[in-house]
Write a structure and sequence with these properties.
Elements (H helix, E strand, L loop, with lengths): L1 H9 L5 E5 L2 E5 L3 E5 L3 E8 L2 E17 L3 E13 L1
Antiparallel strand pairs: 1-2, 2-6, 3-4, 4-5, 5-6
């Protein structure tokens, strides 16, 4: 039984956002739609539809980028889901 929980955790495909002090970690996104110093758009799938997470701020930097994970650092002023 414990292995089933571990397996579902490891193979989790749900879009998740973790907000930290001056950082946002995002997993299971589909693509970066746009990024510059003041705005980052992260696209993700939910219920077979594409949605956007728009991050606005200052001095935004993509400091880690993997196939399913991105870490954005900087002064974060606003998050908007569309």
């Amino acid at each position: 039984m414990q292995f089933n929980g571990l397996r579902s955790y490891i193979l989790d495909t749900e879009f998740k956002v973790t907000i930290l002090d001056g950082r946002i970690n995002i997993v299971n996104f589909s693509e970066l739609g746009h990024f510059d110093n003041n705005k980052v758009i992260v696209r993700f799938l939910k219920n077979n539809n594409t949605h956007n997470l728009i991050i606005k701020g200052r001095n935004l930097v993509v400091s880690k980028l993997k196939s399913n994970e991105v870490l954005i650092e900087g002064v974060i002023d606003n998050l908007e889901f569309r």
